[in-house]
Amino acid sequence: MSGKIGGENGGQDLKRKNGVLAEPNAYAMVVEEFGKPLCYREFKLPQPQNGEVLVKIIASGICGSDVHVWKGEDMRSRLPMILGHEGLGIVDQVNTGRMDIFQNELAEGDLILWNRGVSCKACYQCLIKRKTYNCTSRWTYGFSKSINDYPYLNGSYSSHMLLTPETEIIRIRKAEEVKPEEDYIPYVSACCAGTTTACVFEQIRIDQADHVVIQGPGPLGIYAVLFAKEAGAQNIIVIGGTKERLDLCRKAGATHIIDRSQTTEEERLRQVMAFTDGRGGDVVLELAGTKEAVEEGIKFTSVNGTYASAGIAVDVGDVKINWFRDVVRKNVTVKGVWVGDVKNTYQALKIYEKHKELLAEMISHRIPLKEADQALQLMEEKKTVKAVLIP
To answer: What DSSP state is assigned to residue 104?
Structure first.
């Protein structure tokens, strides 16, 4: 079957496999040129086939990675495309027999989250290493596909998304449990920030006497404070330059705050050593997204410590490290963390459920979807803790 994707604002041919297209009744904000304003486009709404799920988006989180994609800094991107990998939605249409990861049959009206990445489950990384997020064929909603690629409505900066049969879904509430008066929007924080942070903590060890140093007080950093506290860390030290974010980290359980904008690199090192009995961080987490953070943070790491980096989402160039002094001589473990899988999303949801009130405060801006450009600008300038688009 064929149809049109786009109305008066678009008009590219769209081919559906085994599908039928209805009247145009969906829209999205589309990146047509990198770094330029997003374009409003209308779409013909697909009828889900077999295990596909049509989702009505109720919120889409703005991630720092979205800014990189919008600016053309992510090599996976293909134009024209719909951004958005942090989607929360209500099942709009689904065929009988489609299950979530816990074998709950999905029905219209269910509140769901989904794994933003789709892996092949058949390659060496998936089958032998059991790290599906490193799958050689993995593709990601809001990153990897254009609007000309199946499943077409494949980013959450939209009124609807079509999820493929392979997409792993978590049902948060059954349709009859969804309450109009309840605010579900903050759940989007678990999609990316929570998931990636859970993956970090799955791969490191924290003992109860350990000191944890967190570089970057954004959504990743806030979740990291909660996970570190859950693990029983003795001290949790957060370094950053945005007051609102630092305040939330303190509320989450950080024992010490270091304001990067008010200190020099030498002063920060002295403070970290003072807060950690002179030994440095047993675990130091780079969640800031800059190579400068890595160059500084490796010096914070204690003998036999771990330095884990999860904040850098694009190529930021070479990092200058004294490998002997800061890694080899101190027996430091250096760990890179790219993303997480659906298990980590579930772990993030459990943390969210325990700290709903605090994590709701993370959502500092709720912006209409049609004003997505404003949200991206706020994120780029770090004038928001977490911005969410509302269709």
So the answer is: P
- As a whole number of angstroms, the distance between CA 382 and CA 279 comes to 32
Q: CA 267, CA 254: separation in Å to the nearest integer?
A: 19
Residue 95 burial (CB count, 10 A): 14
At residue 288, the pLDDT reads 97
Domain 2-192+341-390 shares a fold with domain 204-336:
no
Rounded Cα distance between 129 and 267, Å, is 42
Q: What's the first-to-final CA gap in the chain, in angstroms?
A: 28
Distance CA 350, CA 172 (A): 11
- As a whole number of angstroms, the distance between CA 320 and CA 330 comes to 17
DSSP secondary structure of 36-102: S--EEEEEEEEPP-TT-EEEEEEEEE--HHHHHHHTT--TT--SSEE--S-EEEEEEEE-TT-B-TT
User: In this structure, are residues 369 and 390 in contact, taking their beta carbons and an 8 Å threshold?
Assistant: yes
CATH fold for domain 204-336:
Rossmann fold (3.40.50)
Separation between Cα atoms, residue 349 and residue 328, nearest integer Å: 37
- Asked whether 245 and 385 are in contact (CB, 8 A), the reply is yes
The total number of residues shown for the chain amounts to 391
- Retrieve residue 75's tokens: 């090599």
Structure tokens at 157: 């900066």
Contacts of residue 14, Cβ cutoff 8 Å, sequence gap at least 6: 2, 3, 4, 5, 21, 44, 148, 152
- Greater confidence (14 vs 202) lies with 202
Write the single-letter amino acid at 273.
M
- Domain extent listing, the chain: 2-192+341-390, 204-336
Q: How much is the pLDDT for 364?
A: 95
Q: Please tell me the pTM assigned to this model.
A: 0.92
State the fold for domain 2-192+341-390.
Quinone Oxidoreductase; Chain A, domain 1 (3.90.180)
pLDDT tens, 187-235?
A: 999 999 999 999 999 999 999 999 999 999 999 999 999 999 999 999 9
Instruction: Write down the residue that tokens 């007080």 correspond to.
Output: 217
- Of 255, 247, 104, the closest CA to residue 169 belongs to 104
Q: What is the pLDDT of residues 43-56, one digit of tens each?
A: 999 999 999 999 99
User: Could you give the 3-state DSSP secondary structure of residue 8?
Assistant: coil
